TrEMBL record:
The keyword Nuclease does not apply. It comes from Iningainema tapete BLCC-T55. Belongs to the Glu/Leu/Phe/Val dehydrogenases family. One of its GO terms (biological process) is L-glutamate catabolic process. Pfam families: ELFV_dehydrog, ELFV_dehydrog_N. NAD(+) binds at residues 202, 233. This is Glutamate dehydrogenase. SMART domains: ELFV_dehydrog.
Amino acid sequence: MISTSLLPLETPTPAHICPFDQACSYLEQAARELKLDQGILATLSNPRKVVTVSIPVKRDDGEVQVLAGHRVQHCDILGPYKGGIRYHQAVTLREVSALAMLMTWKCALLGIPYGGAKGGIAINPKSYSVGELERITRRYTSELIKDIGPAVDIPAPDMGTSAREMAWIMDTYSVNVGHAVPGVVTGKPLSIGGSRGREMATGRGVMITVREALADLGKSLAGVRVAIQGFGNVGGAAALLLHQAGAKVIAVSTGTGGVFAQDGLDIPALQAYAAHNRRSIVGFPQAESITNSELLTLPCDVLIPAALENQITEENVHQVQATIVAEAANGPVTLQANQALAARGVTVLPDILTNAGGVVVSYLEWVQGLSYVFWDEERVNREMEQLMVRAYHQVIEQSQLRQIPLRLAAYTLGVGRVAQALSDRGLYP
Ligand SMILES: NC(=O)C1=CN([C@@H]2O[C@H](COP(=O)(O)OP(=O)(O)OC[C@H]3O[C@@H](n4cnc5c(N)ncnc54)[C@H](OP(=O)(O)O)[C@@H]3O)[C@@H](O)[C@H]2O)C=CC1
Ligand SMILES: O=C(O)CCC(=O)C(=O)O
C-alpha cells in the first residue's frame, strides 16, 4: 500500500478491500516493473484535484436533504479529465478516487487523449423520483461548473446514471455559460449530439475482449457458457451481444437476485421481462432462481462480473469455476482473489481493458462533436472495435514480453504512457 496517499480514510474499510488502496497497489506493482522514478509514483498515487460539494435537495414531500457529491480528477497529463458519474448508495470518496485513477490508465491504455476522473453521489437512485433526480443532478452540476467543461473534464454515465442525467448536466452547464455546450458530457442523447452506439458500447467492448481471449485459446463464442452478474447498461448489452454471437448465457443477476437456465437464457425475452418488472428479472419463466453469490460460482467457461467492486474475494474465489473472468465492472476482483485466480491459471481480463468500449465511444462522440460530422452506427462500432482489438493485442504482447499477468501488463502500458508524458512535459527527468 502507498504511504504517500493524501486522501482521508473516511470509512473504516480494511485495506485489502478498499478500492483506492487496491488501485495504489496495482500502480506500485506497475511502477516496480517499469522502474519508475519515486517522484512520478508519488505524483500518480494521488488525485490532482478532489472536489466534494453539498447538494441540498427538496424532496417531493417538502423535506430538505443535503447530499455529498464528489468529483475526483486524477490526472490530466494526456488530455481533459474523463470519467463517469455514479449514483449508488455505497459511493465513497475513496471509491470515486480509485475509479478516477483507473480511468487514467484505461484512457492511456486505449491510446485516447484523455486523463482520468470520476464522480459520484451516495444515493440509491431508485429511492428518488425523476424530478428529485433532476434537481440533484442540476445542483451537482452547478456546484461543479468551474471544474468541468469540454477542454477540462468531461463526465459520462456510470452505475445509476444514463443519457438522461447527461442531458441534464449538458443543459445546466449550457445555461450557466450562456450557450449550448454539447461537448461538456458524453453518453448524451442523440438529439443533442450523442453518438450512435454509445449505449451498447461498454457491453460491446466486453464481448470483443472475450471473443479475442477465446480465439487465443483456439475457441469461438459459439456455445461458450457465460454467467453475468449485473443486467444494467453493461451487463445487459454484453448479455445480448454474446447471445447474438451464439454464446449460451446460462445465468444473469441483478441486485435483487438472478436466474439460471442450463441450456441458456433467451436474453431478448429476459430484457423484455425486466423492462416490465422495474428491472427485476426474478420470476422469469423457464429459468431457476439463483442468488448473486451462487451465480459467481456456477460451472461455466466465462464469468462476467458487471456490477460492483469486490465481488470475487478471498472468501469465494476458490469456488469460482470459470476459466475466463472478464471484468466488465471496475474492480470486481480483489487483489487477493486476483492472485488466487492467477495461481490456478484462470485468465482474468482486466477492467481497464475489458470495459473500455464505453470510454472509447465517448471519445468518438467527442470527436464527432468537435468536427460537426456524425457517423452511422456501423462506423462507430468499427472504429471502437479497432481500438479495442489493438489494445487487447498490446496487452497480450506486453504480458508475453515481460512474463507478467494480463492486469499488470495492462497497467504497465497505461502507467508507462502517462509516466512518459509526464517526463516529456518536463515534470520529471
Ligand atoms: N456505463 C458504462 O458505460 C460503464 C460502466 N462501467 C462499470 O460497469 C459496472 C456496471 O455499470 P452499469 O451497467 O453502467 O450500471 P447500471 O446501473 O446500468 O447497472 C448495474 C447493474 O448491476 C446490478 N447490481 C447492483 N448491485 C448488485 C449486486 N450487489 N449484485 C448483483 N448485481 C447488482 C443492478 O441491479 P439493480 O437494478 O437491481 O440495482 C444492475 O443490473 C460498474 O462497475 C461501472 O463502473 C465501466 C465502464 C463504462
Ligand atoms: O465514457 C466515459 O467517459 C467513462 C466511462 C466510465 O466511467 C468507465 O469507463 O468506467
